Amino acid sequence: MVSFISAWCLVIISLCYTYVVARLVPNGMRRMILFIPVFLYFFIVPLSLSNIHAVGITAFFISWLANFKLFLFALGRGPLASDTKILPLPIFLAVSCLPVKIHLSPKSYSHGGSSREGLLYYTIMASLLVLMTKVYKYNSKLPNKAVLTLYAIHIYLLLELILAATATMVRAMSGLELEPQFNKPYLATSLQDFWGRRWNLAVTGILRPTVYEPMIQLFSVLGPNWSRVLAVLATFVVSGLMHELIFFYMGGLMPDWKVMWFFLVHGLCTTVEIAVKKKVNGRWRLPTGVSRVLTFGFVMVTGLWLFLPVFNRGSIFERALEEYAYAGALAAEFKSIITSLF
User: Fold this and answer.
1) TM spans, by residue (predicted)?
2) Of 96, 149, 220, 236, which one is least surrounded by beta carbons within 10 A?
3) What is the CA radius of gyration of the chain?
4) Residues 66 and 97: beta-carbon distance below 8 Å
């Protein structure tokens, strides 16, 4: 806990430094050069942590998202940039180091439409997550694919709860309306729908301006069709590399590139899907229920094959369960102390 607090204090100090630099230096190469020490620190900061959850959160929030946001900010673009002036420091810090995106219209994005329904939605998800930690006691009696499927559900529940809690905290402190980070990915009707509109939109929102759009411009000489294909593939390649880096932080193992192949397969299949949609041009379409089953099935099959085995290879889930048990023991001890006092 001490190392986590120390690391994040240095992260905040680093972001304050970039904020001051941005007020003194116009966007461009000079600002980019002055940001380099921060980029480097943000890439190494997860190595100073040992708690698996702290490593994962810091690697995702800081090494990936914050670095990409600061890269755009150095060029005067992205969520940290403004057409009129630099964001106020508290909002700058929140948007920099947390996976949130400010939404400027009055539209509400809460799950279920009301705060009460949203609370029920996340309460159910939290209850399922707690229940799953109990099921893991019987891992040795379950087939490996069943265990990996549990891991997939666990990852989704944990990610959505972490991102929702982060957004709720920022919304309560700032009063700003924030866009959602998940949009019921289990209802996706295609890979394009899954990756572009439903799954972890914090990543989608930062990869588009940092990778997809620059690649469109770079390959524009090849024509709009080929430039889009190469831009989509490049986006999935960068996402794969960043996931490999995060798993290196969490598991301490050199990559075997299966995770990268997961994203390459999805990148290739997504480009084929887009091309087929354009060719068909709405003349023929699968029923919604069928397309949802096929999309979910493809994601799960490729995930079980290429993505999820890394959690066994790096003993990531075993370490996470040990941390849950330790947290539960601390909570029980704290409860007993409170009970004895009152």
Assistant:
1) 6-25, 32-49, 86-104, 119-136, 148-170, 229-252, 259-277, 289-311
2) 220
3) 21
4) yes
